[in-house]
Amino acid sequence: MSTHAGYKGPADCPGVIPVFPLPGALLLPRGQMPLNIFEPRYLAMVDDALRTDRIIGMIQPDVEGGASPMTPKLFRVGCAGRITQFAETGDGRYLISLTGISRFRVESEMAVASRYRRCQVSYEDFAIDFEPRAGEDAVDRDGVLKALKDFVEVNDLKVDWAGIDEAPNEALVNALCMMSPFGAREKQAMLEAPDLKTRAEVLIAVTEMELVRGSGSEPTLQ
Question: Is 130 helix (H, G, I), strand (E, B) or coil?
Answer without folding.
Answer: helix
